[in-house]
Amino acid sequence: MSQRNFPSPVRVKSATAGLIISTAWEAVEFLKRWPGKRGREYRIAMQHCLDALDGLISAGKARLSFITAVRSAGLLE
């Protein structure tokens, strides 16, 4: 299992500072510590990032799902 690099990094807000998420693995780690409600967008993002790690979908598709989730939670920088 590789980290599956995103086509371009995603800047997100965390409790202490801004973070730059560059891989599906980093996205999964961020999603594990999700600060808000774990709704539909969250669940899709988690599944897509895990699928990208398994090589089932592209890292680009996982990135788009991750962006949708962080934007809906107000965590996109």
What does this structure look like?
The model has no long low-confidence stretch (mean pLDDT 94). By secondary structure, the chain is an alpha+beta fold. The chain has one domain. 48% of the residues lie in helices and 19% in strands. The chain starts with a strand and ends in a 5-residue tail after the last helix. The protein is globular, with a radius of gyration of 11 Å. The chain is built from three helices and two strands, in the order E-E-H-H-H. Strands 1-2 form a two-stranded antiparallel ribbon.
Concise description?
The mean pLDDT is 94. By secondary structure, the protein is an alpha+beta fold. The chain has a two-stranded antiparallel sheet with strand order 1-2.
For this entry, give a set of tags:
alpha+beta, 77 residues
General shape: globular
Distance from N terminus to C terminus (CA atoms, Å) equals 29 Å
Biggest sheet record: 2 strands, antiparallel
What is the succession of H and E elements? EEHHH
* Low-pLDDT runs: none
Strand proportion, as a percent range, falls in: 15-25%
Overall strand count = 2
Helix run count: 3
Q: Which range best describes the helical content: under 10%, 10-25%, 25-40%, 40-55%, 55-70% or over 70%?
A: 40-55%
How large, in whole angstroms, is the Cα Rg? 11 Å
Q: What's the overall average pLDDT, rounded?
A: 94
Number of domains: 1
Main structural class: alpha+beta
Strand order of the largest sheet: 1-2
Topology:
Layout (H helix, E strand, L loop, with lengths): L4 E9 L4 E6 H9 L7 H14 L5 H14 L5
Antiparallel strand pairs: 1-2
